[in-house]
Automatic annotation (TrEMBL):
It comes from the Bacteria. This is Haloacetate dehalogenase H-1. Its EC number is 3.8.1.3. The lineage of its organism: Bacteria, Pseudomonadati, Pseudomonadota, Betaproteobacteria, Burkholderiales. The keyword Amino-acid biosynthesis does not apply. The keyword Hydrolase applies. GO terms for molecular function: haloacetate dehalogenase activity. Pfam families: Abhydrolase_1 (PF00561). The gene is dehH1.
Length: 295
């Protein structure tokens, strides 16, 4: 297998967007989705093992990394999880994969949640890292959670306020968010940090991340509420892992919240905080191997 950072980044048209991805490995397809404020490079430490067992497609969400960065729309629909999910289904179909497994972190896990509802026939199994359902997190917000996840409430403020401040020094913003969690920046390799910092300085990045969060606090919640009212549930096996030192597990009953919206849920904490693929790669790989079936 080719080393992760030596692989070319491909740009593949999907859902009207060019989606950037690295692809390698053999076996059944596994879609890998990253979170904020990172790129698909979060998977570099688990990539060698994953690609021994699966054809891995590590993609950048729209607005992030080297994927297309659409302009903001008044209703934030261009950055809704519904559109991001359609991007990823389109990407996988363009690569010849009608059905696939998903391993997703943070914002990518929120995209995966919507994808598994809107495109249930496409998702075989899904592992979600360090999230509870978005609707429940907003409705269950406490002071402790708001303080730990301040960016949720700052990024949704009206444009161009957050964008202007981020664009003044995007590297500072990125380092402050990533370094503000337990363990600081020590978890991240120099090569990965250089990639995250490069991506944060690309035109349109600040708009993309702000609109991602604005959509989550508005249109995405409308979609979630409507879906629940209609009886929407996740029918495929779902595995949920979170960091034992992180804010999600400390502020929410993660498994109970997922069991309320899914039929087949399991999971538990890993010995990390939030960036599990980089903090605790061995523990994540052991759990993923058991869940996806190669161990």
């Amino acid at each position: 297998m080719t080393a992760f950072f030596d692989l070319p980044v491909r740009r593949i048209p999907a859902n009207g967007m060019d989606i950037a991805a690295r692809i390698d490995g053999s076996g059944p397809p596994l879609l890998l989705l990253h979170g904020h404020p990172q790129t698909h490079a979060i998977w570099h430490r688990v990539w060698p093992e994953l690609t021994r067992h699966r054809t891995c497609i590590a993609a950048d969400l729209r607005g992030y990394g080297d994927s297309a960065k659409p302009a903001a729309s008044p209703d934030h629909a261009a950055h809704s999880k519904r559109e991001m999910a359609a991007d990823m289904v389109g990407l996988m179909r363009a690569l010849g994969h009608e059905r696939f497994d998903v391993l997703a972190h943070d914002r990518g896990a929120r995209v995966a949640h919507r994808m598994a509802l809107d495109h249930a026939s496409a998702v075989s199994r899904m592992m979600l890292l360090d999230i509870a359902p978005t609707l429940d997190m907003y409705e269950g917000t406490t002071r402790a959670f708001a303080q730990a996840y301040f960016h949720w409430f700052w990024l949704i403020q009206p444009a161009p306020g957050p964008e202007t401040m981020i664009e003044h020094d995007p590297v500072f913003y990125l380092r402050s968010v990533m370094g503000g969690r337990p363990g600081g920046l020590a978890h991240f390799s120099a090569e990965a940090m250089a990639e995250y910092e490069r991506a944060a300085q690309l035109p349109g990045w600040a708009t993309g991340i702000c609109e991602d969060y604005r959509a989550s606090a508005t249109l995405d919640l409308e979609h979630d509420r409507a879906g629940r009212a209609a009886g929407e549930r996740l029918r495929m096996p779902v595995r949920v892992l979170w960091g034992e030192r992180g804010a999600v597990g400390k502020n929410f009953d993660v498994l109970d919240l997922w069991r309320a919206v899914a039929d087949d849920v399991s999971g538990g904490p890993l010995p990390g905080a939030h960036y599990l693929a980089e903090e605790t790669p061995e523990a994540l790989l052991a759990d993923a191997g058991a869940f996806f079936g190669w161990r």
